Structures are given as structure tokens and as C-alpha cells.
């Protein structure tokens, strides 16, 4: 039993490995990483930055597949254990509300979040500039696109797993047309997943060096007795390019644009060959977690070097106490975020 309670239901078959002896960080990597290697299916050179949920006693996921023509798209995968995956050969066939084919030009960095009885796939796509696309499904057979939530430019949209104050709630990072040289996390709400407003600022790119260039939502926040636990990515710039690390924060339960605690150090940063070496070196990009209320276990899925998928583990007690012990939330982070 954990001291900090997650409100997420039990998942006894969560993928899991105990913390190795000698590890003094709050997250530890799966010893068999990466769990998805190169050329995972015909026509797809790399899978990374992908999201999974429990489904029908096993797991299902939406995977960023970089096709051999270089264009990213989203593929559906299924797994019995959350570690070994089988993919549909074809891209997810998105349709519009009339049931007609409606494919984005490209789609990347998908998240997958269940709210009430519906699963939402959220991704980055072209909407006369980079922005966010969303589709809903209840059976993982029909994926119906709904209205794009934001005008360009925007990235890293992450939906909360339940309505807050009766509203769907989403994090995102307004951005520019390129490889954004700036970026804070904002929050928006909607009564119906169509009209988005009540925009709030959540967190600024850090004064901490490891996240000094930009930050972006990662996995769907996990509801805990200490607030919403958010794993996000923080980016720094070096003379050899960006470095993406995983950070952690706790957001207020009822007003999640207020940051309660924000870890001043990264939770995980590129160290292993599959994180440091690849199509884009030095990238750890979290997109999903699985969690088990009973044991407090959390499994994190993260993209590695834009080439692989890796997994890392922690417990809610361990990560929450680490975030609190290294809390460096600023006054601005703690505000409601409206001016
Ligand atoms: C970001 C996104 C991610 C990618 C990262 C590193 O802007 O495009 O998909 O993992 O850059 O290349």
C-alpha cells in the first residue's frame, strides 16, 4: 500500500520491474529497453513517442510510426503484457463525423486518454500550420475526428482523464512554425470537446538549465491525493542541439493551472545508448503512463532519440516525495495563470 493515493483503479497486470540496487534516482529504466526497435513493421522505419492504455484485459496503444518516406503517422498496436506489441499494418483510418475518410496530412506524438466512456487520440498535425488534431473512439475500430481544438501553432496537447469542474481539460504548448525556441504549458477547458476557452498559464519554461528552452505536457496527468501528477518534457539547448529530459510536477486538483510542486531537477535524462544515439540524439519524451492504485506502481512510456520506445518505472510515493523534496515551483507557477 502506498501513502499517496492514486485515484485510477487497479491494474494488477501493470508491466513492472523492481528498482535496481544502487539506483538513487526516482525513475528507473526497464532492463530490456528499448521495448520497440527499428523497422517495427513494413514501411515504418521507427516507432517512438507513443501512448498506451489498458484495454480488454491487455493493452492497446497509438504509435507514432515514421514511414519510410519520412512522414509520421499513427498506427494502432495491441499487447498482452504492455511490453511486446503487434501493430496493424495500415495507418489508423480516421473518418469525419459522416463516416467518410478524413486523414491528416501527417500526424505525430499521439496521446491516448479515456474520459468517461470514450477514448480520445490527440496528436500534432498540419492545420495550415502545426497544431492539434483529435479523434474519438469507443471500440478502436472507428476513429472519428472531431473539431481541431486550437488554431496554429500549438504542440503537445494532453487531455486530463476526467472533467474538472464539469469541463474537459487539456494542456498544450502554444508554439511557432518551427522547432519552437520558446514554450510554456497552458491549460484550456471545454464543455463539449469542441469549444475551448478559459485559457490559463500553467508553467513557464524553467529557470533550471535542463528545461530552460521549452517544456511540454507529456503523459496524461495522474490523479493523486496530493494533486495531479504530471510527467512532462523539459528541453535545454547545447552547442550540439536540444536535450529532452523528463520532469515532474504536482498540479492543484480543482484548479490545475496552479502548480503545487515542481521538481527543480530532471527525473530522467538521456544516459543510455538508445536515448543518446538515434535519429535525433538525446531525447527522452514521455507520452503515457500506466498505474495501479493498489500498489502505487507507475510505468512510463517514453520516446527515445526519435527512434525507439523505452519504459521506466517508479512508485507514486517515491516520485511524489522526490518532487516535493526538490520543489522549485516559482511564484508564477503557483498562480492561477490569468492576466
Ligand atoms: C519535438 C517533437 C517531438 C520530437 C522532439 C525531438 O519538437 O517533434 O516529436 O521527439 O522534437 O526531435
From TrEMBL:
Which keywords has UniProt assigned to this entry?
A: Glycosyltransferase, Hydrolase, Transferase
Keyword field contains Hydrolase: yes
Q: Family assignment? A: Belongs to the glycosyl hydrolase 130 family.
Q: Which source organism does the UniProt entry give?
A: Allofournierella massiliensis
- The name this protein carries in UniProt is Glycoside hydrolase family 130 protein
Q: Key word Hydrolase present in the record?
A: yes
Gene Ontology molecular function terms on file: hydrolase activity
Tell me the classification of the organism that encodes this protein.
Answer: Bacteria, Bacillati, Bacillota, Clostridia, Eubacteriales
InterPro entries, A to Z: Glyco_hydro_beta-prop_sf, Mannoside_phosphorylase
Q: Which Pfam families match?
A: Glyco_hydro_130
Amino acid at each position: 500500500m502506498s501513502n499517496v493515493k492514486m485515484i485510477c483503479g487497479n491494474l494488477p497486470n501493470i508491466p513492472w520491474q523492481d528498482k535496481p540496487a544502487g539506483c538513487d534516482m526516482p525513475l528507473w529504466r526497464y532492463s530490456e529497453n528499448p521495448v520497440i526497435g527499428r523497422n517495427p513493421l513494413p514501411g515504418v522505419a521507427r516507432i517512438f513517442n507513443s501512448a498506451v492504455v489498458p484495454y480488454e484485459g491487455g493493452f492497446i496503444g497509438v504509435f507514432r510510426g515514421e514511414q519510410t518516406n519520412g512522414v509520421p503517422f499513427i498506427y494502432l498496436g495491441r499487447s498482452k503484457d504492455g511490453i511486446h506489441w503487434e501493430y496493424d499494418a495500415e495507418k489508423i483510418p480516421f473518418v469525419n463525423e459522416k463516416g467518410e475518410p478524413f486523414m491528416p496530412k501527417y500526424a505525430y506524438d499521439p496521446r491516448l486518454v479515456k474520459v468517461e466512456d470514450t477514448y480520445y487520440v490527440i496528436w500534432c498535425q498540419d492545420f495550415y500550420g502545426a497544431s492539434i488534431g483529435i479523434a474519438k473512439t469507443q471500440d478502436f475500430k472507428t476513429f472519428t475526428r472531431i473539431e481541431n481544438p486550437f488554431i496554429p501553432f500549438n504542440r503537445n496537447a494532453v487531455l486530463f482523464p476526467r472533467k474538472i469542474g464539469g469541463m474537459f481539460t487539456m494542456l498544450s504548448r502554444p508554439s511557432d512554425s518551427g522547432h519552437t525556441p520558446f514554450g510554456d504549458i497552458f491549460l484550456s477547458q471545454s464543455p463539449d470537446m469542441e469549444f475551448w476557452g478559459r485559457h490559463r498559464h500553467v508553467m513557464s519554461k524553467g529557470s533550471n538549465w535542463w528545461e530552460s528552452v521549452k517544456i511540454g505536457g507529456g503523459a496524461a496527468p495522474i490523479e493523486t491525493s496530493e494533486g495531479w501528477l504530471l510527467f512532462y518534457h523539459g528541453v535545454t539547448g547545447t552547442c550540439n542541439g536540444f536535450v529532452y529530459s523528463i520532469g515532474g510536477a504536482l498540479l492543484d486538483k480543482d484548479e490545475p493551472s496552479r502548480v503545487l510542486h515542481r521538481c527543480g531537477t530532471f527525473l530522467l535524462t538521456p544516459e543510455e545508448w538508445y536515448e543518446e544515439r538515434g535519429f535525433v540524439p538525446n531525447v527522452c519524451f514521455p507520452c503515457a503512463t500506466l498505474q495501479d492504485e493498489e500498489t502505487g506502481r507507475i510505468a512510463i512510456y517514453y520516446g527515445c532519440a526519435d527512434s525507439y520506445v523505452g519504459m521506466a518505472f517508479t512508485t507514486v510515493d517515491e516520485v511524489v516525495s522526490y518532487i516535493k523534496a526538490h520543489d522549485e515551483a516559482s511564484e508564477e507557477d503557483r498562480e492561477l495563470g490569468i492576466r
